[in-house]
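User: Please predict the structure of the protein below. I'd like the answer in structure-token form so I can feed it into my own downstream comparison script.

Assistant: Understood. Taking the following sequence of 336 residues as input:
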Amino acid sequence: MVRNLKDFDLAELKKLSTKPFYGAILFDWIHNKAVENLEQISNLPKTFQEELKASGFVIENLRLVRRLIDEDGTLKYLFDLPDGSKIETVLLDDEGRRTLCVSTQVGCKMGCAFCATGKMKFKRNLSAGEIVDQVIQVEKLEKGKIQNLVYMGMGEPLDNYVNVLKSIRILNDKAGKNIGARHITISTCGIVPGIEKLAEEGLQIRLAVSLHAATDSLRSKLMPINQKYPVKELIRALKAYQKKTGRRLTFEYIMLAGINDSREHARGLLKLLNGLSSHINLIEYNPHARAEFKPSTRKTIKEFWWITTDRGFETAIRYKRGQSIKAACGQLYADN
């Protein structure tokens, strides 16, 4: 059985030998020097390398299929996984401040009406190593460090809970990428049990919730997961999460023309979020061939923003980025 060393955290690698520092050497070369195979690790004894190989241990690597760049500077990478599946990863560079949007699944089970990934057939979860390797490969390709990490690519992160949390701990490790927990965001469509578990982890990461509607009737049409975890139950879990962690929440709200963008919708959103320490992102919808929604006008988005900010809610407008390369929110489909 092949075992990818990128799936192992530092403590696990140290247990592979009676000499724990061998594990520390492995971790350093994999995560800081981006080696592609064991033979490249010059200060690891050949006898130990052979023992690893005999036990099925390898260093697996995502293979770059295509690198696309938008005129606004957004980069998108199409990667091949070892089994032939494909995923997409997106890099946003704001004056040297690099944010990487990583995928956590091949496809997605959630079926959100406005999302291209949701139209894909779910194939499988990514391993912790496959999530981590997106960071390794992009840093290697772009010759620079990732400052911020967002779990907002293909798939629902909390539907792949164990591997996502393990990847965070690996990427947060000071001996490796050392990405600060407060610079890591998990985005969820509202998996209540996952939110409840996350509250107990003791991690200072950020949690973003894709809300998009304040009522069950509308949210269930846009997001089938709402039928399992309705708005009232979701808000209850988020209040408990915030009480436990003390962390502010981010709410993502995609602006769909004539669907969820009226003044009444804005007031309903504010009523729902009352009592929560929160930040609202109003996202300009990114059209794609797999859904018939239209983006709200920028005037409408601005009016919605004004209503929320006038009531004291911190709100930002996220305009389209990466549109020409289908790298924007809801457009990832691994078909380029």
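That's the full token string. The first helix runs from residue 10 to 14.
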